[in-house]
Amino acid sequence: MSPTIRVDDQVYEELQNRAKPFVDTPNSTLRRILGLPEKPGPAGAPESSSREHTLGPLLADGRLRIGQRLVWRRRNLNRVHYAELLETGALRLEDGSVHDTPSGAATSLAGNAQNGWKAFTTEDGIPLNDLR
What we know:
The structure is a single chain. By secondary structure, this protein is of the alpha+beta class. It is built from seven helices and five strands.
């Protein structure tokens, strides 16, 4: 069992401001601020929060492939966005920007917090969320 720490509202608000939406937990935010490496979980435990939000595991086990193009069809805006899966598991958008997570990529495209696991699909329409 992990120790519990209590923080005041101002500290918690600052942690939220520094967190990556849909990616970070308070612990992963603090680890990044303190310059600590990502902490993998014990054998059989869920992966660390930042790893479970990347496409690396899907790439590693063959559910996705390097160079594969992902699609976000925004019907309400009549727009389609494409992202290319890189060897690192990151996504490169059409503007050349690179994002570590699908949610980071979708948030960049939309200009507000988005869940990229629900937004992006493979070109044949399979949602990333279903591939997890």
